[in-house]
Amino acid sequence: MTDKREPLRADDLPEPVVRRPRFNVALIWLVPALAALVALSLVVNNWLQAGATITISFLSAEGLVAGKTPVKYKSVVIGKVNRIALSGDRSHVLVQVALDNSAEGFATVDARYWVVRPRIGLGGVSGVGTLLSGAYIGADVGRSKVSTDAFVGLETPPAVLHDAIGKSFTLKSGDLGSLDIGSPVYYRRIQVGQVVSYQLDQDGTGVSIQIFIDGPNDRFVSRDSRFWNASGVDVSLGADGLKVNSQSLATVLAGGVAFQAPPRPHDTSPAPENASFTLFADQATAMMPPDGPSRYVRMRFDQSLRGLNVNAPVEFLGINVGRVVSMNLDYDPQRQRFPLDVGAVVYPRRLGRAYEKLAAVAHPGGAQTELSSMIGVLVAHGLRAQVRAGNLLTGQLYIALDFPPNAPPATFDAQARPPLIPTVPGSFDKLQEQLAEIVNKVQKLPLERIGRNLDKSLAELDLTLEQINQKLLPQLNDKLLPQLNDRLLPQINSTLQDAQRTLGSAGRALSADSPLQQNLERTLQQLERTARSLRALTDYLGAHPEALIRGRQPDQTLPQGHQP
Amino acid sequence: MSELPRARELGLVGCRVCGLVCQDIFSLEAACPRCGARLGRSMAASVARTWALLLAAFILYIPANVVPIMRTVSLGDVDDNTILSGVVELWRNGSPGLAVIVFSASIVVPITKFLVLGMLLLSSQAGSGWARLQRALLFRATELVGYWSMLDVFVVALLTALVQFGIFSRVEPLPGVMYFGLTVVLTMLASMSFDPRLIWDGGESDD
């Protein structure tokens, strides 16, 4: 190539070689087609995955974030919160949730939703994980097939999920006590279930508590199982010492229910689902034989019943057969007294075999068991109601149905409803009566006459002593001494000299200013005073015999008897 | 000579690799006799290839923006972000500068590329002689700036590798970043397959 500047001629130049292309140019269009396919598959996938959109209403959207908060079932995400809005009346929030396609079973009427947040209660701590990750909506699938898209969210997590294995039971109770949703249910101190819900009965006279016993322990709930409120501590003082009985500490604080089979032959077949039981206040009550139907009886007491409370026991020969339910003051215008009407509920079945036999006596041959006729039989045999002191320290009283000796005859109206059991005064009243009797007897003593006689005797004694003083001693001096001088002196001169010495000392002793004389005189004066005060005492006792018991009353006592 | 001559008009073609000047045989299958590099150039093939790649990139750009690209798990708090929501979050969390960078790299640049390439293709196909020099400049700028779009992909890749602190903090890539990476690659391929000579082809009157 030396001729550089020469204009090039196309013919001189080398010809390009021809090479077939490796692939067709049109194949490049596969790239956008592939991209379109990918995009389309995404769309289709998204469309297939999208499930129902539901709206859940909550009281508060605390912790919920639109576009982020997941909906989880067993910790598996089944949807996501799309939108959070206030309801029309601003009373609650409406949370719109897009469920996954796989979660269509969660859009049925009995599905439940709640917000899982950290919760700290007496029963334990839950939802700690959400402290860091934020709240999420928990879901529980329902069994229904009816689909819906509007739900009311629960404010507290449900205690039991739908698919939990076990049985639900209903407990009837007078009040809820310290139970709450989630309170444990114990069987032999092992937690086997929990309280699921509770509500007032329709008529408001009690509470129905739903409990759930987890399988397989639900088979221990038999038809005769007894449930009791295990809250609190049971302290009992018995022959074997002080016993403190309680379930776990959590139960003491948060309440709980325990159940057990009664300690006697019973039906051991498992109770059916949703069976109803009575919730007793404590284990002892729960373990008692069934009470059977209760009956109402009335008693009328003529005395103060201070210390008798509602719920005080009614005992028949020491067996608790019922309790006092009412106490009403009444007025009897004829006697001008205030009798107390005491109403009591008794459980005749608690008498056990005696009840059946009594029923047979009251209704020979008949199947009818009328309580009042049975009471009639017993009253005829001396049954009376009596208020007795159950505890001398606290003054608590109870009502004893007993057969007191010497009970005054009483009439029993078998037709009265409720039956009125005749009463006798209680043991305290009896004591008062006995005291009054003693006073009466003391009053009947002839104290006045005794006093008079005593006075006279004392006066005579006084006189006698005076005579001795004034007459006997001078006579002794005048007559005895000359005789002694005349006859005996010569013989017993020496003896007399000794005797003279002796007599001299005796004479000193017996002189008017001798201590003996003075003592004697003082004694006599005291006797005189005693006689006087005795007289005053007898006079006073005559006027106020009760002072013997009560002591001297400085003031005038009130007249006896009721002044209505 | 009112206008400058072009190689095609003189029946010449130069090898781009070894510089050999050959006869132009106007065949797509022509190759350099010395080094074997392709000589043939087809306006239609270049346009078609660019169109196809651009279209594919555009199609993939849609899921790249809709599907989240990154999952941030910090103390159990799971946060999925798409490109746009990530930008918004950066802006809200007090990094407006970073937000602007990510926004321009991930949104502005790809869209600019789509528009510029589309405009170049359309104008070339029409054989328009309008603002040829500016269009050529625009093309060069597009090619230069194109691969900066990969910034987002790199951010995700780097964070995924670096932020792995168990329950405290964790970053995971999500499918969106794959679509976005494909978009960027396809736009780069598209701009590569666009022959800037196309700008100068066509009606010669205007210049």
Principal-axes geometry of chain B comes out as: elongated
Largest sheet of chain B, if any? 3 strands, antiparallel
* Tally of domains of chain B: 2
- The name CATH uses for the topology of the largest domain in chain B is Butyryl-CoA Dehydrogenase, subunit A, domain 3
Averaging pLDDT over every residue of chain B, what do you get? Answer: 83
**What value does the Rg of chain A take, in angstroms?**
53 Å
Low-confidence stretches of chain B are none
- Cα-atom Rg of chain B, whole angstroms? 22 Å
Distance between the termini of chain A: 157 Å
Quick one: overall form of chain A?
A: elongated
CATH class of the largest domain in chain B: Mainly Alpha
Structural class of chain B: mainly alpha
How much of the sequence lies in strands of chain B comes to 5-15%
Number of strands of chain A: 26
CATH architecture of the largest domain in chain B: Up-down Bundle
Question: Structural class of the secondary structure composition of chain A?
Answer: alpha/beta
What does this protein structure show overall?
The complex is a heterodimer of chains A (564) and B (207). Chain A is an alpha/beta fold and 564 residues long. Chain A has 11 helices and 26 strands. Chain A has helices at 30-49, 130-133, 249-254, 283-287, 353-362, 371-380, 427-444, 447-488, 493-510, 515-543, 547-550; strands at 17-18, 50-58, 70-73, 76-86, 93-100, 112-116, 119-121, 124-126, 136-140, 150-152, 166-173, 184-187, 190-200, 207-214, 226-229, 233-238, 241-246, 257-260, 276-280, 295-301, 313-316, 319-329, 340-346, 384-391, 396-402, 420-421. In chain A, the strands form 5 sheets. Chain A has a 7-stranded mixed β-sheet with strand order 6-9-3-4-5-2-10. A 7-stranded mixed barrel of chain A has the order 11-14-13-12-18-15-19. In chain A, strand 7 and strand 8 (124-126) form a beta hairpin. In chain A, helix 5 (353-362) crosses helix 6. The longest helix of chain A is centred in the C-terminal third of the chain and has 42 residues, at 447-488. Chain A starts with 16 loop residues before the first strand and ends in a 14-residue tail after the last helix. By secondary structure, chain B is mainly alpha-helical. Chain B has 2 domains: 1-41, no CATH class; 42-200, Butyryl-CoA Dehydrogenase, subunit A, domain 3. Chain B is built from 7 helices and 6 strands, in the order E-E-E-H-E-E-H-H-H-H-E-H-H. Chain B has helices at 43-66, 83-92, 96-126, 132-146, 151-162, 175-193, 197-200, and strands at residues 12-14, 21-23, 30-31, 70-74, 77-81, 169-173. Chain B has a 3-stranded antiparallel β-sheet with strand order 5-4-6. A two-stranded antiparallel ribbon of chain B has the order 1-2. In chain B, helix 4 (132-146) runs antiparallel to helix 6 (175-193). The mean pLDDT of chain B is 83. Chains A and B meet through strand 1 and helix 1 of A and strand 2, strand 3, helix 1, strand 5 and helix 6 of B.
